[in-house]
Amino acid sequence: MTALLNVVLPVFVIIGFGYAAARWLGFQETAVDGVMSFAQGFALPLLLFVSIARMDLGQAYDPGLMVSFYAGAFSGFAAGFAAARLWFARPMTDSIAFGFVGLFSNSLLLGVPITERAYGPEALAGNFAIISIHAPLFYAFGITLMELARSKGLGLSAAVLGRQVLRAILIQPLVIGILCGFAVNLAGLPLPAILWSAMDMVILAALPAALFGLGGVLVRYRPEGDFRAIGLLAAVSLGLHPAITWALGTWAFSLDEDALRSAVLTAAMAPGVNAYVFANLYGVARRVAASTVLVATALSVLTVWLWLQILP
After folding, report:
1. Cα 101 from chain centroid (whole Å)
2. Which of the residues 38, 157, 168, 305 has the least number of beta carbons within 10 Å of its own beta carbon?
3. Closest to 270 (Cα-Cα) out of 303, 309, 297
4. 107 and 270 Cβ atoms separated by less than 8 Å
5. How far apart are CA 46 and CA 36, in angstroms?
6. Cβ distance 219 to 241 under 8 Å?
């Protein structure tokens, strides 16, 4: 119970502040969009830049950590996709969107603050290692499948598809922050101390602003559509993904405590808003994606607490 009160609830209280401000306190959509633009377009990319630029890459990129997390993630995609096709008889494009909801956990906005509150800032190396390829890999995977499905596998050259996927990835501010962080780290570029100090001040606001903005964004969604599909995708995201990650990390790779915590807690997060953004981009399964983000985020208050009891 202490973990629920001291670690999990404060993060969701900030989300609740944003939700209440937008729902009842007159915080306009434009204001919410402004907060999210600051967080997602500047502060969070800067947080990723600083974290990766300072990271010990050799120590952070444990193959067992990455395989444990991403095997669980792609199992989530497979489960969501198969359920959509075989159980709900949805078309191929809808099924890919279902799978993407099971694939894309909220690794940055929820995973980082909960891991930090539970285990301290020094436990975040594994989180940032996962996040560094999270969005680029999943967007490349999802966009490629969706474009192939829309073209029915015909008439789309590899060069055209490659350009579409690459452009969609490289215009993401988070990806730009990640790539710049790698560039500074690998090149050993010295940056002025005054610049590091300024960036450190900005990134203190990144996660609180993003969590507040997330609460404001969730006001726009209403649980509607196929509640069986919403329940299944929430179970995949909150249960199947972290369970596979925990099993692999514990038994197959014997991860150390910090790596196991980072992998499982990141896997245990609800689908990120990007799951809805992807569905909305292609105009498919939008109600199910938006509703799953909302429902799973609410349910994760309890499921994350349960995973904190399981972890060492």
Report:
1. 10
2. 157
3. 297
4. no
5. 14
6. no
